[in-house]
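pipeline stage [seq->struct] | target=Zn(2)-C6 fungal-type domain-containing protein | organism=Penicillium brevicompactum | residues=468
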Amino acid sequence: MLTRSHTGCWTCKRRRRRCDNGRPACQNCRERRVDCEGYEVRLKWGAGIASRGRFTGADKPIQDSVPPRQKGRQRDLGRKEKEKENRARDPGQYIETMMRFRVDLSTDGSQLEARRTEAENAIFDEFMNDGINTLHSTTARDSMLHPRLPQLCQESNALYPICIAFQLALSSTVTPQFCEYFDTALRTFRSELACSTTLSDATLTSGLLLCSIGLMHGLPWTMHLEGMHRILQSDGLDNANRPSPSFFRLHLLEVMGVMDLHCSAVGRQSPHIGIWRRYCQLATPRHGVEPVSGLPRTLLDIFAGIGIETTEQTFWDWPGEPGSFLQCYLWEAHRLAGILTLRRDKAHVPLPESMSAWRQPAKCPADTAVLVARILASIDALRLASNERPLEDTYIRNAIILPVFVAGLEIDVLCQKPEWQQMIRTSLRTSHQCEILLSLLEEIWQRADPSLSVHDLARQRGIEMGLL
């Protein structure tokens, strides 16, 4: 019969299980893959004269001043009833309270490393060697995150479990192990964010990786962008006299800006913020390629203007930038996808009627069917060239999701071209994220309703997808 442990770790004591007193973690905790709470002495401070016994917390040890203490089973049932009342009264506050108790933010880096298991370290190493490459659409040498990540994991309690959850998220199926680590990562990040008055690079990196997990699996993620932006604003992000941020900080802001772009999300649940135009367009050099999206910053400037000032002619007039043949194929597909996005988007600000006809920008002369054909032709050329030269721009095909998906939304064109549908299926069978996006397109093609909004369809399914 199992008995309560009096000499074991605090986790086994709480569960009333025998403990082998293993260090740094006992065998029970290792087998259950939970954090071992250790063996340190815990002090309990009383609020009054007595700190032990039935008079705990009393101002004076008088019999009548302290109600009789319930014992055993009756006391446990009382606690459960109180928890039910708290949940019914304010579910959100109850969840936040429980998260604060379950996450210990005072643990230093050495204690964290001691509590990490060999299995976790193996998954983290796999992320550092392979999984991190899926975050970029350029070569690995352009990564600013890889050399900094181990130190950032020491500065943020949430970052290490988020990296593990991200690596597990790359699987084609959602496993129970991923759900466990994602739940831990989400709770830890929310608690860390709630305690932050200034957003450190480590916490900001944690949030962006958490958003990346969400946009891959259709889990809510734009709310994290909104929360991080709110803290950055309170820390003086909008202050024109603030000190110039570091290059890595600018890189993180650019990643936020790309994730926040008008066309980066399907079924978006939080409003568009405009991070790229407000904080990146003027603060970073207007040349070169942004490594996560794989797009030139000058082209991202145009995408960031959708809904404000960008027109079809703006995309059509973009002169391009020097790059490899593979990059030119990718950039051409995105430029044409931007034109299709403008044609389908009814939310962009119309031009004033009083504007003279000669000042109004001309519409792109190409027909929609021609644009779709050119997008798919560019993607097919990119695929063939990548197969012929596998060592050139190894990760550039990470960036094809947006133009392929945008082309697939043109129902009138795709329903008449089954071979183009098949080409899109072939392009979007590379990950769990692509499979979800393809399922949205399949339903749109099947229903053949031009008025059907893909964003409404995604919200009906309860998913918030990303196109990165």
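stage status: PASS
auto-comment: DSSP finds 22 helices and two strands in the chain. The CA atoms of residues 422 and 440 lie 15 Å apart.
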